[in-house]
Design goal:
With 308 residues, this protein is an alpha/beta fold. It folds into two domains: 220 residues, P-loop containing nucleotide triphosphate hydrolases (Rossmann fold); 82 residues, Alpha-Beta Plaits, CATH 3.30.70. The chain has ten helices and 14 strands.
Length: 308
């Protein structure tokens, strides 16, 4: 799949000397949902701001659909919609007026049918004539998305788009995002709700301390790095792991009523059969067992911890 955004050797150092980004190399594919994950201060917003022309890079280049973001600024900006973290709207305006105004800023002709569809898709139509100051926090957040979509961009950046939005409305918003992806829009999102990235993203990038430490297909990432945990409910509780089972790195939980064993699903042998045999030899009986898979959040936390 062709790259619609290409980032090469991108760095950003602020006047204070802070290195926000360090030699970023990244291609984002046309029509994908790319989730950029990282802790606060990792460089996510700085990276997005450079691509969108809000912050100047110190070194490196960025091209969007083959156009340099500096030399071809107007052409690039017309292809991009940005939903920032911070609420930034005229509180005395109405959703209808502000979305139409945003569309006009990009030189787009009036299209009331298009604006109506955007507002309806984001459950804002009934509030189209209300002053923005009267809207709930979730509605204001959705209005930022409506403004970003006003000029029908090919690329949409969502920087923490669902902060302050309740679960039901969050899912409605992701339905809109999926529909946009089906129309060929490329979507780059940052989020603290890692379950959303796990559910929505095609690929995941992890950034820490200004460096991209991993970019991977989501399914492949979870296959490679995901681990499973076997939980054994014991018939008789234990206070410690017996020496005969020390090699399995077991953990006693639930007041001694449970043993947990973590294993690599990609290993040639999981060790489960040997563990059960050795437990039987040690006289440890269990009444039930279950397995759980590492989530994307578990993987993310491990990667960031390793970077430290």
């Amino acid at each position: 799949m062709n790259a619609i955004i290409s980032i090469a050797n991108l760095s950003k150092t602020y006047a204070s000397g802070f290195h926000a980004l360090k030699h970023i190399n990244l291609d984002i594919r046309q029509g994908e949902i790319f989730a950029l994950l990282g802790p606060n201060g990792a460089g996510k917003t700085t990276l997005i701001s450079i691509i969108c022309g809000i912050v100047n890079a110190s070194t490196g280049t960025v091209t969007v659909d083959g156009k340099d973001i500096v030399r071809d600024y107007r052409a690039v900006r017309s292809m991009i919609g940005l939903v920032p973290q911070e609420l930034s709207t005229d509180m005395f305006e109405t959703p209808w007026a502000t979305v139409n105004f945003s569309r006009g800023l990009f030189g787009k002709p009036r299209d009331h049918a298009f604006v109506e569809k955007v507002l309806k898709d984001l459950s804002l139509w009934e509030k189209k004539d209300s002053r923005i100051m009267t809207l709930s926090g979730g509605m204001k957040r959705r209005l930022l998305i409506a403004k970003a979509l006003a000029h029908d961009p090919r690329i949409l950046f969502l920087d923490e788009p669902t902060a302050g939005v309740d679960v039901e409305l969050r899912r409605e918003m992701w339905d809109v995002v999926r529909a946009m992806r089906e129309r060929g829009v490329t979507i780059i999102l940052t989020t603290h709700y890692i379950e959303e990235a796990e559910e929505m993203a095609d690929r995941v990038g992890v950034i820490a301390k200004g460096e991209i430490i991993l970019v991977e297909e989501k399914t492949e990432l979870m296959r490679k790095l995901g681990k499973k945990q076997l939980s054994l409910q014991l018939q008789i509780p234990l206070t410690d792991v017996p020496p005969a089972l020390a090699a399995y790195d077991l953990h006693v939980a639930n007041d001694g009523h449970e043993l947990t064993y973590t294993y690599d699903t990609q290993a040639e042998r999981t060790g489960i059969t040997a563990l059960l045999n050795d437990m039987r030899a040690a006289g440890i009986a269990f009444k039930d067992l279950s397995t759980t898979q590492s989530s994307l959040e578990d993987i993310f936390v491990d990667l960031v911890r390793q970077k430290r």
